[in-house]
UniProtKB/TrEMBL annotation:
GO terms for cellular component: endoplasmic reticulum membrane. It comes from Ramazzottius varieornatus (Water bear). Pathway: Protein modification; protein glycosylation. The chain crosses the membrane at residues 89-106. Keywords: Endoplasmic reticulum, Glycosyltransferase, Membrane, Transferase, Transmembrane, Transmembrane helix. This is Alpha-1,3/1,6-mannosyltransferase ALG2.
């Protein structure tokens, strides 16, 4: 295939034909960042553009269905390179893997490219820019803020990586951020990029895929038949997701509800249940360790049999669990955006979330759910409201559906993303 010369196109050429867009992403698993990239690729494809994804890892057993059923063209490059050495140097190898993807794309692939969209790791941008590619960087959150520097050696190790992140991010032709919250953090973190123009592009829901979902008449087998009030947590098994808050709040709830509802009533079947589900990768030590810590926490509260753990659920299972729950518990603090609350609200389920970060922009307190301080008693008090008023989940669920359709539709997301892509190709402001 002949490679098309890169650079700016005149606006009339762009409007007359589709663009060739390549996404470069580190690990095409099942996290929120991956969901956004998949949705972005589907959005541009639905607009008539030619779309491909290049990634350093893609496991057909641990991915979104669009990346394995032929909907999207996925190419894996450099998966032979290790992710770490003896559990160390994750950031270094993530950068190397993305740089390798970039080298392959510009030197060895026959993909014609008008725009390359990369996210999470900006280190590949200099390679992409060397051959004149138009590059958009989508910032979920500054990478340097996602890791702790608990030792002097760690600080030394991270210092050049942090500088490289800031420098290479500034080389992008266009920068997108996933929320106003992330935009503010970007401004504070990257001091040299304060003047850089950024656009907020909220993640959205591919609503048509949700509309095709037909819930089973029977609740998911993980939920006991006696349970009348089911609370659900969906997050990766990572410490920063603070899933222990959901467990502690569920334990505290037992002291706030009537005795005949509490799990500790000896003569009544349990009517309360908590389901914890999320991404789990046995290649990641933190996933293994945090899962075990949560299991031990449940045991320490005496909640065995009243809490169910599920790992790496597929999309249909996730939708069924949301359909079956009374309310979603969303526990991360300072979350960059958070797509799961949107999914729950679109399926008419209220959300109890920490009052910080992305949920401040997605959950309407008192209307589509409750925004709480990150402690178990505040969460438990909010959970109690849904136990006490059986109509409250329905009322807030209806409000949530309307809120998502009005503010986070896939159509609006697609239009804004296409405008960003056209702008970087033509130079025409949007």
């Amino acid at each position: 295939m002949e490679r098309r010369p890169r650079g700016k196109r005149p606006p009339e050429a762009t409007s007359a034909k589709s663009l060739d867009v390549v996404f470069v992403h580190p690990d095409l698993g099942i996290g929120g960042a991956e969901r956004l990239i998949v949705d972005a690729a589907v959005a541009l494809q639905s607009k008539g553009h030619n779309v491909r994804i290049v990634t350093s890892h893609h496991d057909p057993k641990h991915c979104f269905v669009e990346t394995r059923d032929g909907t999207l063209d996925v190419t894996v490059v450099g998966d032979w390179l290790p992710r770490n050495i003896f559990g160390k140097f994750y950031a270094l190898f993530a950068y190397l893997r993305m740089i390798l993807c970039a080298i392959w794309l510009v030197c060895f692939s026959d993909f014609p490219t008008d725009v390359i969209i990369c996210d999470q790791v900006s280190a590949c941008i200099p390679v992409l820019k060397m051959c004149g590619s138009n590059v958009i960087f989508y910032c979920h959150f500054p990478d340097q803020l996602l890791t702790k520097r608990e030792s002097f050696l760690k600080k030394i190790y991270r210092a050049p990586i942090d500088k490289l992140e800031e420098y290479t991010t500034g080389m992008a032709d266009s920068i997108l951020v996933n929320s106003r919250f992330t935009d503010g953090i970007f401004e504070k973190t990257f001091q040299s990029l304060k003047g850089a123009t950024r656009h907020v592009l909220y993640p959205s829901l591919h609503c048509s895929s949700f509309d095709q979902f037909v819930p089973s008449q029977e609740r998911h087998s993980a939920i006991p038949k006696s349970a009348k009030h089911v609370f659900l947590s969906i997050n990766r098994y990572e410490r920063k997701k603070q899933v222990e808050l959901a467990v502690a709040a569920f334990a505290a709830l037992q002291h706030l509800v009537p005795c005949d509802i509490s799990l500790h009533h000896p003569d009544q079947p349990a009517t309360l249940h908590l389901v914890i589900a999320g991404g789990y990768d046995d290649r990641v030590p933190e996933n293994i360790e945090y899962y075990e810590a949560l299991v031990n926490l449940v045991d320490s509260f005496g909640l065995n049999g009243h809490v169910t753990f599920l790992k790496s659920i597929d999309n249909s299972t996730k939708l069924q669990l949301i359909n079956d729950c009374t309310a979603l518990l969303y526990t991360p603090s300072e979350e960059h955006f958070g797509i799961v609350p949107l999914e729950a609200m679109y399926l008419k389920r209220p959300v109890i979330a920490v009052a910080s970060g992305g949920p401040l922009e997605t959950v309407v307190d008192g209307e589509t759910g409750f925004l709480c301080e990150p402690d178990e008693m505040h969460f438990a008090e909010a959970m109690k409201k849904f136990v006490a008023d059986r109509e409250l989940p329905r009322r807030m669920g209806d409000n949530g559906r309307e809120h998502v359709v009005r503010n986070f539709s896939f159509e609006a997301f697609s239009d804004q993303l296409e405008k960003a892509v056209v702008k970087v190709v033509t130079g025409v402001q949007y």
